[in-house]
UniProtKB/TrEMBL annotation:
Stated name of the protein: Chromosomal replication initiator protein DnaA
Stored Pfam families: Bac_DnaA, Bac_DnaA_C, DnaA_N
Domain AAA+ ATPase: 137-289
Subunit structure: Oligomerizes as a right-handed, spiral filament on DNA at oriC.
Keywords recorded for this protein, A-Z: ATP-binding, Cytoplasm, DNA replication, DNA-binding, Lipid-binding, Nucleotide-binding
Gene Ontology MF term list: ATP binding; DNA replication origin binding; lipid binding
Domain notes: Domain I is involved in oligomerization and binding regulators, domain II is flexibile and of varying length in different bacteria, domain III forms the AAA+ region, while domain IV binds dsDNA.
Domain Chromosomal replication initiator DnaA C-terminal: start-end pairs: 349-418
GO biological process entries: DNA replication initiation; regulation of DNA replication
């Protein structure tokens, strides 16, 4: 496993540093959801923990095919390794491993680590409500949205929360893939009861990426029965999907209609403020010191996928440490230019934003940047200023200038106002989302 992890990180760390930092490391112990490695000294431990842990964990996620793995770094592997080999000679490696294997090392995906913003406010509230009262409020809870927007995070958070509140609650998180494999294996082994037991004897069942149930007729059937059994006993079901149930085209209607019995809610991409907040939280949790300016820059460049957002931060830090450089906006720019696809990086001109806003509201550019305070113009103007702040790197004064020479406090006021509206009002949120979509597709 460790070699595979190294293989993966070697794409992001240059060969000399890989040699310097990882030559002396050894895998010590594999856990269900993590890997312990040992390093020669505390200096290496601190260095690896502070610089590479996120990158290593990302790689380990991939290798283990899980989403929440941890890397533990300990000092002085030799003794421990030898010790383990001794014991395993007596008792067999397997049993030693399981005896010492904690079920879970730490929970990364919790409500505490989830940053709330316009795009996920409803989904978060629903998930929390469900976690507080499983089986009572919304059943099933169906969360859908694009890649890397926090669906898995919310599902896991529900699970952790329920377990923390009441350790006797039986919670099971599975991906649709696991469910499918379990089902197929149970057919093969002729053990349908075991399968039923595993899935029906839960208080909370969390099923991730349900879209993969498409085209699997028999597994759908199995899921249908599981669903009914749980539902009838008021057991909580939470489902994540990349799209709305009605677009799960080849799913049986009776399943789709059941998904709509409870609450269906979406997750939308985070706005700039939320993206900055997510990076801040991430930096704080990993105890990384990064200037706000740099975080803001990253957040402005990576806009549609939170996994990539976090990945960008990690890569910039890794790069800086490898080349002994300060983490500055200039450095971030250099690194991001390499890793971002052109389309994400291409600048959006303010004129394009103004053009699309005018088109959307059916007003002229003159009125948009003009002096009229009539709501018909003032509101679109505020929206356009907000979007200029959101989608470009231009400073407040620059934006003000593009809007008929307004000063920066006007732009700030407009930006805050729209940001608040987005947070409190679903229609505004959808409207801004739609305009943003138009702008991005014309870039
Ligand atoms: P999805 O399942 O929707 O593809 P994930 O739940 O795996 O996305 O999220 C991708 C990454 O982004 C994870 O590391 C997750 O912790 C992080 N993330 C997503 N949303 C948030 C949020 N609102 N606050 C903090 N981190 C988030
Ligand atoms: Mg996911």
């Amino acid at each position: 496993v460790w070699n595979e992890v190294l293989d993966r990180v070697s794409e992001h760390i240059n060969a000399p540093s890989l040699k310097v930092w990882f030559e002396g490391t050894r895998p010590v112990q594999l856990y269900e959801d993590g890997l312990e490695i040992s390093v020669p000294n505390t200096f290496a431990k601190e260095y690896i923990e502070s610089r590479f842990r996120p990158l290593l964990e990302e790689a380990l996620d991939g290798v283990l095919g899980q989403e929440e793995t941890s890397i533990i770094v300990s000092v002085g592997g030799q003794g421990r390794r030898a010790g383990r080999e001794e014991t395993s000679a007596e008792t067999g490696a397997e049993s030693v491993l399981s005896a010492r294997t904690p079920r879970s090392l730490k929970a990364k995906y919790t409500f505490d680590s989830f940053v709330i913003g316009a795009g996920n406010r409803f989904a978060h509230a629903a998930a929390l409500a469900v976690a507080e009262n499983p089986g009572v409020v919304y059943n099933p809870l169906f969360i859908y949205g694009g890649v890397g927007l926090g669906k898995t995070h919310l599902l896991r958070a529900v699970g952790h929360y329920v377990e923390d509140q009441d350790p006797t609650m039986r919670v099971r998180y599975v991906t649709c893939e696991q469910f499918t494999n379990d089902f197929i294996n149970s057919m093969r082994d002729n053990a349908p009861l075991e399968f039923q037991k595993r899935y029906r004897e839960n208080d909370v069942l969390l099923i991730d990426d349900i879209q993969f149930l498409e085209n699997k007729v028999e597994t759908q059937e199995a899921f249908f029965h599981t669903f009914n059994a749980l539902y009838e006993e008021n057991k909580q079901i939470v489902i994540a999907s990349d799209r709305h149930p009605k677009y799960l085209q080849t799913l049986e209607n009776r399943l789709v209609s059941r998904f709509e019995w409870g609450l269906v809610t979406d997750i939308q991409p985070p706005d700039l403020e939320t993206r900055i907040a997510i990076l801040r939280k991430k930096a704080m949790m990993d105890r990384l010191e990064v200037d706000d300016e740099v975080l803001t820059f990253i957040a402005s460049k990576v806009s549609t996928n939170i996994r990539e957002l976090e990945g960008a931060l990690v890569r910039i830090l890794a790069y800086a440490s490898l080349y002994g450089r300060q983490v500055t906006v200039a450095l971030a720019e250099e690194v991001l230019r390499d890793i971002l696809p052109d389309s994400d990086y291409r600048e959006i001109p303010i004129e394009l934003i103004q053009h699309e806003v005018c088109r959307y509201f059916g007003i002229s550019k003159e009125d948009l940047v003009g002096t009229s305070r009539s709501k018909a113009f003032a509101y679109p103007r505020q929206v356009a200023m907000y979007l200029s702040r959101e989608l470009t790197d231009e400073s407040l004064p620059k934006i003000g200038k593009a809007f008929g020479g307004r000063d920066h406090s006007t732009v700030m006021h407009a930006t805050n106002k729209i940001a608040n509206l987005i947070n409190s009002d679903r229609d505004t949120f959808n409207q801004i989302h739609e305009i943003t979509y138009h702008i991005k597709s014309k870039r």
